[in-house]
Design brief:
The protein has three helices and four strands, in the order E-E-E-H-E-H-H. Strands 1-4 form a two-stranded parallel sheet. A two-stranded antiparallel sheet has the order 2-3. The protein is an alpha+beta fold. The protein is elongated and about 80 Å long. The longest helix has 14 residues. The N and C termini lie far apart (about 60 Å).
Length: about 90
């Protein structure tokens, strides 16, 4: 079975504030996402590359992928019954 891979680059363009876990001070660091490799992975598998710069954009990306990847799922349901007739017969 062949799977499509949808890659998502997450982060702002340029620099982003990163909080130091010890001092709780913010430092600005450059955001480096290897977009060419993410695009290549998506292309090789028939998927698509997306870029999310905030939570709202990420939600939209997930919704778009969800629309593209609808598939049928077969569900089987089983029910277990316990027969308690012997208990009733024993009472009479």
């Amino acid at each position: 079975m062949v799977y499509r891979v949808y890659t998502i680059g997450i982060g702002t363009q340029g620099v982003a504030p990163i909080r130091d876990p010890i001092s709780f001070q913010y430092q600005y660091m450059e955001v480096n996402i290897d977009e060419p490799i993410l695009k290549q992975i998506a292309q090789m598998t028939g998927g698509q590359y997306f870029r999310a710069t905030n939570n709202q954009a990420l939600r939209k990306i997930y919704a778009e992928i969800d629309k593209m990847e609808k598939s049928r799922v077969e569900v089987r349901e089983y029910k277990k019954f316990d027969e308690n007739i012997l208990f009733l017969v024993w009472l009479f």
